[in-house]
Amino acid sequence: MHARKIRVQDGRIKLDEPTDLPNGTELVVVPVDELEDVVLMQDDGLDDEERQELLRSIDEGLADVDAGNVHDFKEVVASLGTRT
After folding, report:
1. 21-66 pLDDT, tens per residue?
2. How far apart are CA 32 and CA 30, in angstroms?
3. pTM for the complete prediction?
4. In the chain, fewer beta carbons within 10 Å around the N or the C end?
5. Do residues 4 and 19 make contact, with C-beta atoms less than 8 angstroms apart?
């Protein structure tokens, strides 16, 4: 199942593409700007401490990107074959 793009038009939710979902299928609709909050609420198997560590790691990674501390993906993959 893949995500489907929808829009609100005149107070009604409209699909931008046809769907083959059967009648009566229940869906959960979340505005894109609230999606991160919903994803974080899902059961990810992490306890609170592990989740906080994950979020800290993500923040550190984003800070590295902002600071320009990045490497080209193809170069990194190519270097993996040359390690001994």
Report:
1. 888 988 888 787 777 766 665 667 788 898 889 889 989 998 998 9
2. 6
3. 0.41
4. C
5. yes
* Residue entry with tokens 């270097």: 79
Q: Which two tokens stand for residue 25?
A: 């299928």
Query: Domain residue spans in the chain?
Result: 6-80
Evaluate whether 41 touches 34 at the Cβ level (below 8 Å): no
Are 76 and 83 within 8 A, CB to CB? no
Give yes or no for a contact between 66 and 59, defined as CB atoms under 8 angstroms apart: no
Cβ atoms of 35 and 42 within 8 Å: the answer is: no
